[in-house]
Amino acid sequence: MVWTIAEAVLVVSATAALATVLHARAGDLAIRRPPKYAVRWAVLGAAAILGGGLVAVTLLAGLSSWVPDEFAGGLGLLVPASVFAAALAVSEELAWRGALQGWLGRTLGPWVAAFAQAGVYGLAWGVALGSPLGGVLAAAAGL
Question: 125-134 — which CB contacts under 8 Å span 24+ positions?
């Protein structure tokens, strides 16, 4: 979780520094409160993904995957995993899609911004994972 928060701070800071160097206006960073309907859909989507993930894990690993043992937390692992997933989603959306893609979209256009953001995102995750394939897959997911 520390890496995720550091990643978000680094991307937002680097984007703000680049915007300053290029004399962009503060509003060009596109960091703003989303509309209520978007928040509602995001919460519903997160709940659906979490519920679907729990069902998939249970079906693939069996009910024994929820029994605590000395190596895994079982059901007790659900809360920290959910907190981590929420922190990751919020920080990455703020940093990558909010600041970087939002600003690039205003300066270079939406298509260039989407592909540039995905490329930088894939590069960051490829380095973090130590895997070029992981970077390519992250870029595809970021796009």
Answer: 128/3, 128/7
Residues contacting residue 94 through CB under 8 Å, at least 6 positions apart: 8, 12, 31
- Do residues 122 and 136 touch, judged by C-beta distance below 8 A? yes
**Rounded distance, CA 126 to CA 134, Å?**
5
- Cβ within 8 Å of residue 130, ≥6 positions away: none
Q: Any idea what DSSP says for residue 65?
A: G
- Is pLDDT of 65 > 80? no
Residues in the chain: 143
How far apart CA 35 and CA 18 sit, in angstroms, is 27
Greater confidence (72 vs 23) lies with 23
How many angstroms separate the first and last alpha carbons of the chain? 23
